[in-house]
């Protein structure tokens, strides 16, 4: 139970940080999305 709670809190913190970061850096977000899509294609998804 403690592990699940820790995962939930960690996920919320990381999502919050990502959302705050993308609000401050829209161009960086676009660059990350492009790299992410290329990475997924290379993985074969």
Task: Record keyword descriptors for this entry.
single chain; flat; 45 residues; mainly alpha
Account of the protein in words:
With 45 residues, the chain is an all-alpha fold. 91% of the residues lie in helices and 0% in strands. It has two helices and no strands. It has helices spanning 2-24, 26-43. α1 packs across α2. It starts with a helix and ends with a helix. The model has no long low-confidence stretch (mean pLDDT 80).
How many β strands by DSSP? 0
SSE arrangement, N to C: HH
Average pLDDT:
80
Describe the oligomeric state of these chains in a short phrase: single chain
- Tell me the major beta sheet: none
- Please estimate the helix content: over 70%
Structural class per helix/strand content? mainly alpha
Low-pLDDT stretches = none
> Could you tell me the radius of gyration in angstroms?
14 Å
How far do the termini sit from each other? 32 Å
The outline comes out as flat
Number of helical regions = 2
Q: Percent of residues in beta strands? A: under 5%
